[in-house]
Every structure is written in C-alpha cells, then in structure tokens.
Amino acid sequence: MESFDKHTLDKQVLIFKALAHPTRLWIIRQLREKDYCVHEFVQMVGDDFSTVSKHLHVLKEAHLVSIAKKGTTVYYRLTHPCILSVLGCIEDEL
Q1: What's the domain range around 33?
Q2: Residue 93, pLDDT above cutoff 80
Q3: 81 lies in some domain
Q4: Contacts of 38 (CB under 8 A, 6+ apart)
C-alpha cells in the first residue's frame, strides 16, 4: 500500500476540480489543436469575456494551461497533453 501523500493528492484534486465544468473541458479539447487567445474562445463559446477569462484562470491555477504573449495578445496552451488521454479513456467507457 502506498503512503498517504496529502500534498500530491491536493494537487490532483485541484486538477479534477478545474475540469469539472463543461466549458473548461471543451477549452482543454480545443487546445489540443492549437493555442488560442481569450477572444477566440469568447467567439466560439458565446460567453462574455470575463466568464471565459475566469475559466482560463481556473485552468491556469491548476497548471493545465500556460500563457504565451505575442505582442499584446495572450495565447493559452495546454501544458499537460496527457490529460487528453484520461478524457479519451473516460469517453470510451461512456
């Protein structure tokens, strides 16, 4: 039996909490294709800028996305593409 590592488990819980919203799951799926800026997500999702920004902030706090600035535009990219395998595994069982 492995030892109880609360620190590691807390980090994993943060990731799963970040994924626990349909818009954030959708954003993660989109980022497998390319990097996107907030404005692109706003147009695709149809939510307002602040709502999409909050979703991206949650994903960033969970270290699922990172940012890259190009001029004045901030682009978001997936930091752990392996999460797509987890999502794919779950989808296969639905």
Answers
A1: 6-93
A2: no
A3: yes
A4: 49, 52, 53, 56, 74, 76
Instruction: Please write the tens of the pLDDT for every residue from 31-57.
Output: 999 999 999 999 999 999 999 999 999
Burial 17-49 (b: 16+ CB within 10 A, else e): ebbeeebbeebbebbeeebbebebbbeebeeee
Token pair 């620190």 is at which residue? 7
User: Beta-strand (E) ranges in 16-91?
Assistant: 36-37, 65-70, 73-78
As for how many domains the chain has, the answer is 1
Give dist(CA 29, CA 49) in Å, integer. Answer: 19
> DSSP class of residue 72?
T
